[in-house]
Write a structure and sequence with these properties.
Blueprint: E1 2-4, E2 9-11, H1 16-40, E3 45-48, E4 54-61, E5 64-72, E6 103-110, E7 116-123, E8 128-138, E9 141-148, E10 153-161
Antiparallel strand pairs: 1-2, 3-4, 3-10, 4-5, 5-6, 6-7, 7-8, 8-9, 9-10
């Protein structure tokens, strides 16, 4: 019991601080779960390619999504001992640029379908850019597709969220 200086009377507080603390703790925990779910529902972050050869960072760019190679399992070319380069690029001026930093997911915009974005995909293995899409399948999996012939022939790759 304590004396309330404003009302000039004695107030009973038995159990009230604990009840408030318990309610605040539960509310904070629920907020944390909700924020984690919201974050997980976006493809923003680092992703491991299907073959495990690269880590790609998906980020917002120009009102859409872009993906940049941020790490390679084998960063150096075994023949030269130097960092791998974009040696297959169709543009000869870009063939000497390091692979780390190359944009491979380009201008992905919401497609109108939930959790799906459409744009372009650069394939460093053949040096070509394809129409493509990125689909968030769940919080830890995305499907990246590159297509030719107006989407008649597509090749998909499943990426997992990097820890």
């Amino acid at each position: 019991m304590f004396r309330d200086p404003v009302r000039g009377r004695t107030a009973k507080t038995k159990g009230k601080p604990m009840k408030f603390l318990r309610t605040a703790t539960i509310a904070t925990a629920l907020l944390g779960v909700w924020l984690g779910t919201v974050r997980a529902a976006e493809p923003i972050g680092n992703w491991q390619t299907e073959d495990g050869k690269a880590t790609v960072r998906i980020a917002n760019c120009g009102g859409g999504l872009c993906g940049t190679i941020v790490a390679l399992k084998e960063a150096n070319d075994p023949d030269t001992g130097r960092p791998k380069t974009d040696k297959n690029n169709a543009d000869a001026n870009l063939r000497n640029r390091p692979m780390i930093g190359v944009l491979i997911v380009l201008g992905m915009k919401p497609s109108g379908t939930a959790n799906k974005w459409a744009g372009q995909v650069y394939n460093a293995e053949d040096g070509k850019t394809y129409s493509g899409s990125l689909t968030l399948q769940d919080a830890s999996t995305i499907k990246l597709e590159g297509c030719i012939l107006g989407g008649l022939v597509c090749k998909a790759s499943i990426w997992t969220r990097a820890s």
